[in-house]
Amino acid sequence: MKVILLERVEGRGALGDVITVKDGYARNYLLPRSKALRANAANLKIFEGQRAEIEARNAKAKAAAEKSGEGLDGTSYILIRQAGESGQLYGSVAGRDVADAVNAEGGVKVERSMVVLDKPIKTLGVHEVKVRLHSEVTVTVTLNIARSQDEAERQARGENVIDSQFEEERLAAEEAAADLLEGGAGQAASEYTEA
What we know:
Layout: E1 2-5, E2 18-20, H1 23-30, E3 36-38, H2 41-72, E4 76-80, E5 88-93, H3 95-105, E6 115-116, E7 121-123, E8 125-134, E9 137-146, H4 149-156, H5 161-194
Parallel strand pairs: 4-9
Antiparallel strand pairs: 1-2, 1-3, 5-7, 6-8, 8-9
């Protein structure tokens, strides 16, 4: 199906382009969201008559998104989640969770459809997530996913809490083994042999 784009659509074209897309994509996505019109003679005439108005409306929306994006770009949010010993989350962090965290802070209103996640986040750590405020305005926010507030602060300083946890356990095991060799188990065995 041929359509006329009413705004920039990533990977497809810019405002005013006449492109060919699959029928389902046009009927289910572009047309209901007012991102395009069917490309026929009547709609081409309507579009050309309203082109300046559509471009002005698009520029205004882009300017508003850029303004709100300035305050949002580079911000950091802490999400407390339950996770296993290896740092694997029980569940995952999805677009809705990111939108809820941003909206809880106030300022910019973010819909979950604006959050760009290739795949859900399933591990502890610091993750960068893109938020598309407008088809031409994308900002990056940082998510600090941890099991506790203390762990989040350690991660924010750059510490890998999972590696440090395993290191602490290894040191404790070495200390216990050294303690056993020095006195604990060794003395008990020698006491029985002397008597």
